[in-house]
Amino acid sequence: MIFLIFIAAFILAYLGGKFQIKNIRINKILIFSWLILVVYLTLLFSSPYLLFSLFLSIFVIKLFLDSPMWSSFLKYTIYMGFFIILFNILLNSNGSTVLFEFFWIRITLESIVFSLSMLLRLMIIMGAFAIFNSNLPMEDLIEVLEKLKFPPKSVMSLALSLRFFPIIMKEMKEATEVLLSRGLDISGIRGKIYARYPVITAMLSSSLERAIQVGEALEVKGYPSTKRKTWKTISLNVVQKYVLLIFVITAILSTLYRVISGGFSFYPVVDTFKDFEMCIFLFLLPLSLLLGEVSPYD
C-alpha cells in the first residue's frame, strides 16, 4: 500500500503540471500563512500516509491556482530525490526486512520506505513553494511581511532569498535558448556540460547587474527607512479571518496529535496504517485556503 501511495504521488505531480480547473486569486496574507502551515506540518509528521494526505491537499489547490513553476520545481525534486534514495538505501542498513545483501551492501524494505517518505516530504515543500512563488509577487510579499511587523532588513533578506532560485532558473532557461538560437550543439551529456560555461558566465553578469538595480530600487523606495508609505494595503474580510483562524487551529491540533500519538516508526518494522481520521483532517483543512478568494471589490 505504501508503494502505491508513492506511485500515486508521482502521477499526480505530473498531472498537476498539465491540468488546471480554474484560476482564482487568493488573499496574499493567506497564501503566506498557508505556506508556513504546510512547511510546519511537513516537518512535524513523518508518516507517509499523513504526508500523502497533505500532498493531495496541495494538488487540489494547484488545480485552482496558477502555478507555472510547478513542473520545474518538481522536476528538480525528482533529480534530488534520486540521490536521496540512493544514499539512504546504501548507507542506511537498519530494518529487519532484508531485500538484498551483498558484502557490505544491505538493502532493507524499511530503508526504502524511509527514503521515499523523505522524497514525498521534499515534493510537498517544493510544490508549496511553487504555488507560493507563482501567486505572491515580491512587492506583495514585502508588504505582507511588513504588515506582520518583521524587521525591514529581515524582510528584504527573506524576500530576495525566496526569489533567488526562480529567477536563476528563468535566466538559465533564457540563456540556453539563446545558445540554441545561435546554433550551439548541446545535445548529449558532453554537449550540455560544455554549454554550461557560457551559460554560467551570462548568469554571473546578469546577477551583478541585478544586484545594482535592486540596490538602486531600494534606495529610491526609501529602504531601510521606517517612515515609508504604501499606496495599497492588504486586508482580510470576515471569511478570510476565519480561514486564518483555521490555519492556527490546524497547527495546534496537529502538534497535540503528534505529542499524544507519537511519531511514525520505520524501524525495525514499518508501522501499519492507523491515522485515517488525521489523514482526512490534513487533507481538508489546508483546502480552506480556497475560501480566501479575493473578489473584484476587495
Short description, anyone?
With 298 residues, this protein is mainly alpha-helical. The protein is built from 10 helices and 2 strands, in the order ααααββαααααα. The protein has one domain.
Helix/strand layout:
Elements: H1 2-16, H2 28-44, H3 48-64, H4 70-91, E1 98-102, E2 105-108, H5 109-135, H6 138-147, H7 152-181, H8 188-220, H9 238-261, H10 276-284
Antiparallel strand pairs: 1-2
Helix pairs in contact: 1-3, 1-5, 2-5, 2-9, 3-5, 3-10, 4-5, 6-7, 7-8
How would you describe the overall organization of this protein?
This protein has 298 residues and is mainly α. The protein has one domain. It is 68% helix and 3% strand. It is built from ten helices and two strands, in the order ααααββαααααα. It has helices at residues 2-16, 28-44, 48-64, 70-91, 109-135, 138-147, 152-181, 188-220, 238-261, 276-284; strands at 98-102, 105-108. It has a two-stranded antiparallel ribbon with strand order 1-2. α2 packs parallel to α9, α3 runs parallel beside α10 and α7 (152-181) crosses α8. The protein is globular. The termini are far apart. The relative contact order is 0.17. The mean pLDDT is 80.
Please state the oligomeric state of the protein chains shown. Answer: single chain
Total separate domains: 1
Q: Helix count?
A: 10
Structural class: mainly alpha
* Low-confidence residue ranges: none
Shape: globular
- Beta-strand percent range: under 5%
In the sheet with the most strands, the strands line up as 1-2
| Cα distance spanning the termini | 45 Å
Number of strands: 2
What is the element string, with H for helices and E for strands? HHHHEEHHHHHH
Q: What composes the largest sheet?
A: 2 strands, antiparallel
Helical content band = 55-70%
Overall mean pLDDT: 80
